[in-house]
UniProtKB/TrEMBL annotation:
This is Solute carrier family 35 member C1. It is found in: Membrane. Residues 352-372 are annotated as: Disordered. Putative transporter. It comes from Moschus moschiferus (Siberian musk deer).
């Protein structure tokens, strides 16, 4: 049977339900994926992957410990979490603009898009910026009130919120095994809260901020997918506009919460060490976006999730050793439940996605049968 001829029309923009599904379920648009690069020697590729994963671990863990120092150090005694977050956003904006100018002045030096502040684009990014502010602010507030060792458990409900939002917004059901993995995460979270309370170190305020941070992380994934077309799909342009909006929106919060007044009376305001640590925190905040993308590029989104889970485990152990804390068996069990449940969910979703990709589309089967 002769096939009909015709021209292919450009693919229409993604529907809202498709965008939400991609964001919540962790899938990507197949047509947007780059073609596979030429096969490299195994040893070289293994070394590249090891280097990229190590860079991600070092950057992420260092950023958490540094932020804990800035937010809750007894020696620093700086009670301005919103200002710390604002300054890190400001550093990111300046770095993006600096790299953009360098790429313009010296072509070939760095590969960075040209950035010009367009108020129309900034307004279209505003919904994401509000969620972004909530995400980074609640993250830092959680870290301020809880220990680094408990930080991972306190923010462990992101996967659960992904499943919940996928059902509420998309009416997308989740498989039994994925739900079972989520129940393990929830069980680990509650056991961790119980054990923190038993040891007298539980902060309900910090735990609430951790839950809100988890919710904002899920919402951030949704809104990121929705607003990417406004910046031509450029993650760096989105980072620039997102942080620029955040800087403006943080200003009234600094005034209302009295953090500017507290900052002016801060004894170490003129200390080079203080501003050096603040700037270093901003550099880590900028770098984590780059190394995260790099790890996904050299491995895969699923491997990135597994690496993040393993990093969280190493971070917890390092925190317990560094702060010389004594934790009970049940406390460690709660952490293992959270990490194990997260890993299990990642594996289950990976298998489901692989099965979906391997199954032939019903229309394709029907078309093939007609052509035989």
């Amino acid at each position: 049977m002769q096939r009909g001829t015709g021209t292919f029309k450009p693919r229409a923009s993604l529907k809202r339900s498709k965008i939400l599904h991609m964001a919540l379920m962790g899938t990507s648009d197949p047509s947007g994926e780059a073609e596979a690069s030429q096969e490299k020697p195994f040893v070289l590729r293994a070394l590249q992957i090891a280097l990229v994963v190590s860079l991600y671990w070092v950057t992420s863990i260092s950023m958490v410990f540094l932020n804990k120092y800035l937010l809750d150090s007894p020696s620093l005694r700086l009670d301005t979490p919103i200002f710390v977050t604002f300054y890190q956003c400001l550093v990111t904006v300046l770095l993006c603009k600096g790299l953009s100018s360098l790429a313009t002045c010296c072509p070939g030096t760095v590969d960075f898009p040209t950035l010009h502040l367009d108020l129309k684009v900034a307004r279209s990014i505003l919904p994401l910026s509000v969620v972004f502010i909530g995400m980074i602010t609640f993250n830092n507030l959680c870290l301020k009130y809880v220990g680094v060792a408990f930080y991972n458990v306190g923010r462990s409900l992101t996967t659960v919120f992904n499943v919940l939002l996928s059902y509420l917004l998309l009416k997308q059901t989740t498989s039994f095994y994925a739900l079972l993995a989520c129940s393990v995460i929830i069980g680990g979270f509650w056991l961790g809260v119980d054990q923190e309370g038993a040891e007298g170190t539980l902060s309900w305020t910090g735990t609430l901020f951790g839950v809100l941070a988890s919710l904002c992380v899920s919402l951030n994934a949704i809104y990121t997918k929705k607003v990417l077309p406004a910046v031509d799909g450029s993650i760096w342009r989105l980072t620039f506009y997102n942080n620029a909006n955040a800087c403006v929106l943080f200003l009234p919060l600094l005034l209302v919460l009295g953090e500017l007044r507290a900052l002016f009376t801060f004894p170490q305001l003129g200390s080079a060490h203080f501003w050096g640590m603040m700037t270093l925190g901003g550099l880590f905040g900028f770098a984590i976006g780059y190394v995260t993308g790099l790890q996904i590029k050299f491995t895969s989104p699923l491997t990135h999730n597994v690496s993040g889970t393993a990093k969280a485990c190493a971070q917890t152990v390092l925190a317990v050793l560094y702060y010389e804390e004594a934790k009970s068996f049940l406390w460690w069990t709660s952490n293992m439940m959270v990490l194990g449940g997260s890993s299990a969910y990642t594996w289950v979703r990976g298998q489901e996605m692989k099965k979906t990709q391997e199954e032939p589309h019903p229309r394709e089967n029907e078309k093939n049968n007609m052509e035989v």
